[in-house]
Design a protein that fits this description.
This protein is an alpha+beta fold. It has helices at about 25-30, 55-60, 65-70, and strands spanning about 5, 15, 50-55, 85, 100. The protein has a single domain (about 5-100), classed as Ubiquitin-like (UB roll) (Roll). Bound molecules: FE2/S2 (inorganic) cluster. Belongs to the adrenodoxin/putidaredoxin family.
Amino acid sequence: MPVITFIQKDGSSRAVEAKNGASVMETAIHANVRGIDAECGGSCSCATCHVYVDDAFLHLLPEADEMENELLDGVASERRPGSRLSCQLTVSAQLDGLTLRIPEMQA
Ligand code: FES
């Protein structure tokens, strides 16, 4: 199973085994990773599942669609080049080792 590492704002990190086909948000919620609220449950309408994707993995991800892009413009923490909504990222074997940072705040 692919392993995803979530890094908290205090620098602590947690590596979590993820199921192929699940979203990164679902992976975090199931593992009780702090800092991802996912208020809309993954329907791309709340932006409280914001993460910063490590540069090394950005090229492996599909581009954010228009809806995700619009929501990223309104995230509570600074939008950066690696900003993505984790409910829109699907786990695959290719993403094994994916490293994500949790933003300062989600709402
Ligand atoms: S969970 Fe709401 S936009 Fe991702």
